[in-house]
Amino acid sequence: MSELRYDGRVAVVTGAGHGLGRRHALELAARGAKVVVNDLGGDRAGVGASAGPAQQVVDEITKAGGEAVANPDDVATPEGAQAVVQAALDAFGKVDIVINNAGILRDRSFKNMTVDEFDAVIAVHLRGSFLVSSAAWPHLRENGHGRIVNTSSPAGLFGNFGQANYATAKMGLVGFTKTLAHEGAKYDIKANAIAPVAWTRMTEDLLPADFADKLGVEQVTPLVAYLAHESNQDTGEVYTVGGGRIAKIFVAEGPGYGQKETFTVEDVRDNWAAISAAEPLTVHKNAMDQMGPLIQQLSG
């Protein structure tokens, strides 16, 4: 089959100075996309700033014959997010692909986590993804085409000790992604999310050192690139990826238990096994679909 190309497409990749974002930017550029490489240039806690990391990736792309521009703006601010998208418009005249990858870590057990540590992580991961997508959204709608890939995490989907802030942001991105998928459908805007497992400076304290080679970022980028391609028609989905494995993750509902009378506490206790049953599972398309069984019960 033919090679997937991105000729004529313009991609914005946030947090692209290192790790996953860098690999995404290089891959898209190698396949013909024009790329805005965004990175604030701080450390993994979000402290400091430097134009160096983004520019280094741009230099790699241009040396290989690709086209890219660097952008060091802060995606956690409305002005910074707008500047990221404006960089694409100024340099290349449009934007087609948004890959929200920027993130920081401020891990701490919940009993010790400060409000500032919580807010800072939410600001970059969740608010930043919203702001960049919001800045790009009018242009994607006007063009009648767009691909958005958000970066969630297994920590958000399943929880992880010491990451209440990070997990909250990453699970928030799942709901954000699914809503963008619904609202973008009539404009051929597809939105999906990944939950990667990869060895980067963000995860080097969480993953065993001997897994570094087996969990390289190059194992994640092919999925991201496919989801960003015009041929991909799936939307509103979440995929885990890493170490040579990709799988779809579902938000699903068990069969449940219902009764016409108002529940008492004892009713809940006595029917707990049915309430907690995990099969058969139902994967709903949207919130109204999920409420269908309840509406049917109330109407019966």
Automatic annotation (TrEMBL):
Coiled-coil ranges (or none): none
PROSITE patterns xref list: ADH_SHORT
Gene3D superfamilies from the UniProt entry: NAD(P)-binding Rossmann-like Domain
Residue ranges annotated for the Ketoreductase domain, each copy included: 9-205
Highest taxon in the source lineage: Bacteria
Keyword Mitochondrion: no
Gene Ontology molecular-function annotations: oxidoreductase activity
UniProt entry tagged with the keyword Oxidoreductase: yes
Key words, A-Z: Oxidoreductase
SUPFAM superfamilies: NAD(P)-binding Rossmann-fold domains
PANTHER family, sorted: DEHYDROGENASES, SHORT CHAIN (PTHR45024), SCP2 DOMAIN-CONTAINING PROTEIN (PTHR45024:SF2)
Record family assignment: Belongs to the short-chain dehydrogenases/reductases (SDR) family.
Protein's recorded name: SDR family oxidoreductase
